[in-house]
C-alpha cells in the first residue's frame, strides 16, 4: 500500500488513469449533445434557414467539468483509497490472536473489537490465516481466513473471570497441538497474569510476539464490608500514576420495586495509591435494599461489587417471659442471645404487641409459655407470612400446659410434662452431650465442642412426625432442637433455655453458629470454608464480563467451601449464591485482591490501540461519481431542451407524493364533521341485507319528501351499526325489527340508553301490522320485546288523539305505512295532564318521546329507487297512493317532532293566550 | 393521387357519426346559387320564377293544357274560378370538396390535440352534410366522386375521406371541376406553393369560386422548440437540423406569415376566401366560418 497525503491506495497504479482526463476533455468538447428528433410538417418552411451561431454545438464547460469530476472520482475510487491506513510492517505466515478476554478488558471491549477488526482486515489483506485463543475459555486453535473470524467477532465477549492456572494449562496444551511457527498478537486486558512468562515463552518459541496494551487502566471494586456501622467500599487500581476520583453507585430496588441508585459515594485516590476506601453510612432500611455497588462509568464485572448477607442486618425481636424481671443479668434468658446477636443483627426488645408491627425477620421467645389470644393469632399470621419464630424452653414452658395434649400451632412438637434433668446432684446419669448433626440438618458440618453439655431439657412426646422435625439431638437421641414449617415461615424450638441454666450450649461458639445457620443472624465477616462445610449454594444472580446481572438459576450449585476458596472460573462465576435463606456473594475482585499491571520483556513488540480507525473511501468516491453522473444526466437533458421546467416540477411533485405516505382514506359515511353539518337520518343495521337496503331506500325517500316540502334538508341516510358507530349524530334512528337480528352487546345497550337519554329517538318497526291487528303476537314483536328489555324506555301508550305527533306538520289521524291500522305507541302522557275546558288539546309540554313503536312497515312505503320511483306497491290504486302519501306525512311529522319537540303543542295555545290578553 | 383502400367500416361510421354531430348544430346551409346557364338541375334555390320546386310561388288561373290534377281545390273552392298552385323553380348548387389527406396532415403536437387530418375530415364532411341537407350536390374534385345529392352521397364522401395519401404534401386536385360550381379546399397548405397556385388559377378560369381553409397545429403557429433539434416531415422525406431551435423561431414565423400572405393574395385574385383554423380550437368555429364564407362568397 502506498500512502499519499494520509490516504493510502490499495491499487495506486490505477491513478495513472487520471492522465487520460485531459484527452477526455478534448474528446468530450468535440462531441456536441445528440439532437432531438421531432416530427414537424412545417419543416418545408425551415428548409434553407441557417443557424446564427454555433454556441450550443459544444458541451458547456461546467458540464464537461462535471463529467471530468465523475470520471476522476471513479478512477480514484477504484484505486482503493484508505484513510488512516495501517502502515505496519507486514509479516507472513499464520497469526494467533491471544485474548485475555477477562472482565478487566470489558470496559474497553468495543475498542478491542475495532482493533481486532482492523487487524483481521490487515491479516486478510496479507492473506494470513488467523486463529483466536481466549485465555479464559481456551479452545483448540483453528486457523481460518481472517474474514471468517471478522464475522464471528460480535460473538466474542469477555468472561467475568480471569485466566486461571487450569485455563492457562489448557491453552498451552492447545498451543502444543499447532505445528509450525506463527506470529502472536496478544491483546492484554491490562492486568498481570501469574503464568504470563510461561505463555510468553511458548509464544516466542513459535514466532514474533506483539502485545497490544489496552488504552485505559483497570480499576476494580472490592466487596463491600460492614465496619463499625458503615459500609466500607474499597477500590483498587493497576495504574497509580495520577490522582483519581471514583464515584460508587449503591444500587437496589426502591419500595416500588424499580432498580435505582440509592446512594453514591466517592473514593479519592491520590497518586501512587493503589487502593482507596470510603465509608457509606446508610439507614438499615436502605441497607437492606442494596443489591450491588458499581463504579460509575466502568462497564466490567470487576467494577460491580455484589452485596450479600454481610451487609444485611436482620432485625431480631427478643421477647422474654416477664418484663421487669428482677433476676440477675447473667440469669436473664435473653442475656446470651443478646450477646450472641448484637454484633450481627439489629435487636428489638419490648413486648410482642409493639414489635409485631415492625415486622422483624426473627422473633425469639425465651421461655414464654402462653400468649394472649390476640397476640397469638397475630404471631401465627406473621410466621405464616415467612417469619422465623425461635423459642427457647425454660421452667415456665416446662410447667405450662402448652402443647401438652395436642400440638400447639406455635410449637414444633408436643411436650411431656415436666421435662427431665440429667446429671444433677440427685440423678444417676451424666450430663448429655450433643450427637453429631444429621445430614439433613441445617447444622450439618458444624463442629460440636466437647464441653457442650445439657443438664435439663423439655422432652418431646413421640409423635409420628417427630423424627422429621428433629434437627439436633442429644447423644441418647432425645430431641434438642426441633423445627416445623408453618406456611412460609417456620417455628424452631430449642429444648433448653437460652441461658446457661439448663445447658452450656449458650456459652459455646456453637450456639452462635447454630443461630447463623438458622439465619437468625448473619456473619459479620465472610465465612470461611470450614463454616460452610456440608452446604450447597445455588447461584441466583451471576455477572457476565460486562458486569450485567444475569439469571443464574440454570447453573449448577456449588459446595460451600468451594464457594469461598476456589478461584473464579466457568464453574464458579461471580454472583450471588443462596442456601437455606442465607445469601453469599462472590465478586470478580476479592477482598484482598490487588491489581497489578503487566510488565513485558523487551523482546516483544508493544503497541497500543490505534487512535484513528481505518476508513475505506472507495465507496465514497464511487458514490460521488454516481451522483455526478446523475446530475450530468439531468443537466444534459436540460441543455438539450428535453427537460421542461414544468415537467421537472411535475416530476419533483410526483417524487414528493410518492415519498409522502398515503393517508388512510376517511370513510365518507362515518365522517362525523359531515354528519354534524347536516341532519342525517339513520337506520339500525339488522344484518339482513334486504331489510337494510329497504330501510336505506325508505329513509332516502323520506329525505326527498322532507327536502321538497319542508325546510329540513337531510343528508343521505346512513346505516348505523350500534356496536361500533357513534349514535349521537342521528336525531332519529329507524330500527326495523328482524327476528334474526342478534341481541346487541351490553356496551351497545349502554350506548343506546345514553342516546335515548340525550334526546335521540328510535322508531321501532315490527312490520307486522296485519298480524298484530288480530291480537296475535308475532316473531318480530317478541323479538322486539327481547331487544328492548334492557333499554331504558318510559311507560308507553297508543298515540292519543291530541299527541303532538298528530299535528307536528300535517294533521294526521292515523299513521299508516305499507300496512295500516296497527296502533302506534309513544311515551305515555304524564298522569297529571288534564284537558282544559275549551281547548282541543291537553297541555302535554313534555319532552320528545324517546321511542315510537309500531308495525306499519313505514320504510317499505317510503322506499324509492335511484330514480325516485316507489320501490314497493302500497294498497291498490288511488287509495294505495293516498296511503303512501299519509305514510310520508307521518314521516314528516315524526322528523318534525324530533327536531322541534313540542313546539307545535305550544302553538295551539296561542289563540287562548291572545284571547286572555284581550287582543 | 394514390389513395389507399378504405379502412374497415368501424372508423368510417365513427367519422360519419362525428361529422353528423358537428352538422346537427347548424341550420341547413344555404349556398347562394349563381344562375348558371349550363348545369341546371333541380335544387332548393328559388330561381324567382315559377317552376318545379317545393315552395309556393303563385296561384294562376287554370289554363288550357293543364291537367285536372294540377287544380288546387282549396283555393278554387273559394270562388268559381279554378286555380293552379305554382311552385318556385328551384335548382341545386354543385359543391366540390377537396380535403388534404397527405401525410403532413397526420400530425399533432400533443396527445390532447387531434391530428390535423382528423379535424380537416370532420370539417369537410360536416360542411358536405350541411350542403347535402340543403339540397346541394356535393362531390370531390377530380373524377373520383362526381357531385351527387342524397344521403347516399354522404356515405360515399365519408368513405373517400377515410382514405389516406402516402405522399408527404398532397397537391390540390383541380381536375373535373364543373364550371361555375363552388369549391371547398381544406389543407395545411405547407406543400409546394406552385401546385396550389395552379389549382386555384384553373378553378378561377372555370368560374369556380370557393373557400380555402388552412388547418394548422398550434405548434406550427408558435414554434415552441429549443435546443439541438432535427425536424422531419411525417414521412421523413424532408429534414432540417438546427443546433439552436429557439433562434429559428422568429424567422420561421416570418416565413409562415409570408406563406399565408401569398395564399391570401392568391385567393383574393381568384375570388376565393381564405380562413385559418387551428386544431387547438373548437371544430364548431371552423364549421361556422365555412358556413358563413360559403354563404357570403360573391354571387
UniProtKB/TrEMBL annotation, chain A:
<protein>
    <submittedName>
        <fullName>DUF4159 domain-containing protein</fullName>
    </submittedName>
</protein>
<feature type="transmembrane region" description="Helical">
    <location>
        <begin position="61"/>
        <end position="83"/>
    </location>
</feature>
<dbReference type="InterPro" id="IPR011933">
    <property type="entry name" value="Double_TM_dom"/>
</dbReference>
<keyword id="KW-0812">Transmembrane</keyword>
<feature type="domain" description="DUF4159">
    <location>
        <begin position="681"/>
        <end position="899"/>
    </location>
</feature>
<feature type="transmembrane region" description="Helical">
    <location>
        <begin position="616"/>
        <end position="635"/>
    </location>
</feature>
<dbReference type="Pfam" id="PF07584">
    <property type="entry name" value="BatA"/>
</dbReference>
<dbReference type="InterPro" id="IPR024163">
    <property type="entry name" value="Aerotolerance_reg_N"/>
</dbReference>
<dbReference type="InterPro" id="IPR025297">
    <property type="entry name" value="DUF4159"/>
</dbReference>
<keyword id="KW-1133">Transmembrane helix</keyword>
<feature type="transmembrane region" description="Helical">
    <location>
        <begin position="6"/>
        <end position="28"/>
    </location>
</feature>
<dbReference type="InterPro" id="IPR029062">
    <property type="entry name" value="Class_I_gatase-like"/>
</dbReference>
<dbReference type="Pfam" id="PF13709">
    <property type="entry name" value="DUF4159"/>
</dbReference>
<keyword id="KW-0472">Membrane</keyword>
<feature type="domain" description="Aerotolerance regulator N-terminal">
    <location>
        <begin position="7"/>
        <end position="81"/>
    </location>
</feature>
UniProtKB/TrEMBL annotation, chain B:
<protein>
    <submittedName>
        <fullName>DUF58 domain-containing protein</fullName>
    </submittedName>
</protein>
<feature type="domain" description="DUF58">
    <location>
        <begin position="58"/>
        <end position="258"/>
    </location>
</feature>
<dbReference type="Pfam" id="PF01882">
    <property type="entry name" value="DUF58"/>
</dbReference>
<dbReference type="InterPro" id="IPR002881">
    <property type="entry name" value="DUF58"/>
</dbReference>
